[in-house]
Amino acid sequence: MDLMQILADKKKIQLHLHVKNHSIPKIKVDVMRFREVIENLIGNAIEYSLKPGTVDITLSKKDKDIVISVEDTGIGISNSDQKKLFSKFFRSETAIKHNPEGSGLGLYVVKSYVEGWSGKIVVKSSEGKGSKFTVYLPISQKKSSKKEASV
């Protein structure tokens, strides 16, 4: 959050963390990849938010999942672009106009990692009104790796 707060301050975006349940269990994931997932989602939310904007990060537990959502007040994503959003090298024209840099790999990688942990990611967005990315990670996972640690 500290690193992301610096970026948010530069862009004049308010960054808020909400922890809905303080008894969230630890899960086994690759810590470096998990950090990459979180930084990518929050970084995108900050990058595509309009000034003055807000980014809300929520951590909670629902049923058998840990749920992490990142919601912004940004440019939003069209329904047609949402269908391609997690494709390799995809960038919407609106995103390119707002920020010409970028490879179109970030969300593809995020989805790959999340699914590798037996989780899922979903997006809800409206053009001009912002986006909400939600990651569901199962508390009990089938896959395990030597690189994984509890977070």
Notes on the protein architecture:
The protein has helices spanning 2-11, 31-47, 79-82, 93-98, 106-116; strands spanning 13-19, 28-30, 53-62, 65-72, 120-126, 130-138, 148-150. By secondary structure, the chain is α+β, with helices and mostly antiparallel strands. The protein has a single domain, classed as Heat Shock Protein 90 (2-Layer Sandwich), CATH 3.30.565. The strands form two sheets. It has a five-stranded mixed beta sheet with strand order 1-3-4-6-5. β3 (53-62) and β4 form a beta hairpin. α2 (31-47) runs antiparallel to α5 (106-116). The two termini are 15 Å apart. The model has no long low-confidence stretch (mean pLDDT 88).
Quick structural summary:
The protein is α+β, with helices and mostly antiparallel strands and 151 residues long.
What's the Cα radius of gyration? 15 Å
- Average pLDDT for all residues: 88
Under the CATH scheme, which class? Alpha Beta
Let me know the CATH homologous superfamily. Histidine kinase-like ATPase, C-terminal domain
Instruction: Supply the number of helical segments.
Output: 5
Give the biggest beta sheet.
Answer: 5 strands, mixed
Helical amount among residues, as a percent range? 25-40%
Known CATH architecture: 2-Layer Sandwich
How far apart are the first and last residues' alpha carbons, in Å? 15 Å
- How do the strands of the widest beta sheet line up side by side? 1-3-4-6-5
Number of domains as seen in the coordinates: 1
The SS-based structural class is alpha+beta
- Oligomerization: single chain
Q: How many strand segments?
A: 7
SSE ordering: HEEHEEHHHEEE
User: Which residue ranges are poorly predicted, with pLDDT under 50 across at least 5 consecutive positions?
Assistant: none
The best one-word shape is globular
CATH topology: Heat Shock Protein 90
Proportion in β-strands: 25-35%
